[in-house]
Structure formats: structure tokens, C-alpha cells
Specification:
5 helices; about 0% strand; mainly alpha
Length: about 120
Amino acid sequence: RHSRYVNFSVKVRAIFINEFARHKHMFPGIDGEAFFVGTVLHSLDHTLFEWIVEDPLWLDIDDPKFGKMAELTRIVRAGFVEDVPFLYFNKRFSRSDHPFYKRVYEKAAKIDRKLADHMDTCIIK
């Protein structure tokens, strides 16, 4: 069995691509695979990073091999992972009225509601 994330991602990708084919006329010039990666996978990547690395200071900047990467990752975790508060627009699939996002979310939530609730229509951090 794969991880929870892999299981969800593989199943939701099929849903996303099928729904995208139905709504493609609403997204002229957009590639469905790139759209999936840029919305679902990218937003869940940020979410999982936030859940797994709760404190940026956990990263060891003194490690001789990975210290420089840890420094950069601390900055990313501290400033570019959590949601920006007080947005004037909706960015979640779960709250979208758009038929494409709504259908993808409804189906994804049946697989894993917690992960589906963190799928973003755009990345703003």
C-alpha cells in the first residue's frame, strides 16, 4: 500500500483529468496535467510541508552536508507555507462555486476529506 498522499493523489488525478475534459471549454489554452500539478499537487505539497515540519528550527543548519539546504528550507517554511490571512477571494476547491472545482472537490472529499479540504485553485502563500 502507498502513502495516504500517493493514494489520494493518484485517485484524484483521474477525477481531475476526467472533469477537466468535461469543462475544457472553460479553460482555453490550459493543459490538464499541468493544471493538476499546479493546483492539487502544489497546494498539497505546501500543506504536507506545514504538517510535517511544524517548527522551522527543527532543521539542522549546522549539518556539514545539508546545512545550507536547511537554512533555505527554514526560510521557505517560515514565510511561504502557511495560508495568507484575510484574502478577499476564495482559493479553495471546497468553497468554489465553479462547476469544475466543485465536482472535483465533491469526489475528492469522498476519498479523503482532510486532504481535499486543502486543495487550492491557485497558490498564494
